Amino acid sequence: MSSNVGLSTPRGSGTSGYVQRNLSNLRPRETFAPYPTSELKHRQRQPNAEILEHDRLRQIEVQVFELRDQLEDDGIDEEEIEAQTEALRRKLDAEGGRDEGRGKGLKVHQVHELAKAKIEESQRLRKALGIREDYEEGGHWKKGEERLREGLEGKRNERGLERERY
User: Fold this and answer.
1) Are 116 and 44 within 8 A, CB to CB?
2) Which residue, 95, 110, 116, 122, could crosslink 47 as a Cys pair with Cβ 3.0–4.6 Å?
3) Which pLDDT does position 115 carry in this prediction?
4) CB 103 within 8 A of CB 117
5) 55 contacts 113 by C-beta, under 8 angstroms
6) Please, are residues 118 and 103 in contact by the beta-carbon 8 Å criterion?
């Protein structure tokens, strides 16, 4: 026996006298809400502009390198190769981010491109359905609850006024 816990002697009790904690005892929760409501609102992940620009420039350089490799295999002189690759680089840079069907061929690891495509898709859908930018999901339920509370408070105030009269 240790520090007055358990039986003074296990004799005649049919047990070994070993004391265990009750693991099935549930403690009451300290907070009443099972989850924080402020963290439930979905926020769209914003893409990093620097990473998007880096990937765009990298794709341009990949195409330029492929052209350079092909021209070197064909045996064209270095000055002509430089001129053609520089022309291709300027052309691709002028086109910029004008890719049609942006979200179609993206890989799973291209998270910033996927986020940008998802934001663009959401904006197109919002425009098509006529949904405001400040629309909050479930907002109509909150408004209904507020109206109900105001109605109940109004009734309570009326009852309080009636009691004061008598």
Assistant:
1) no
2) 116
3) 87
4) yes
5) yes
6) yes
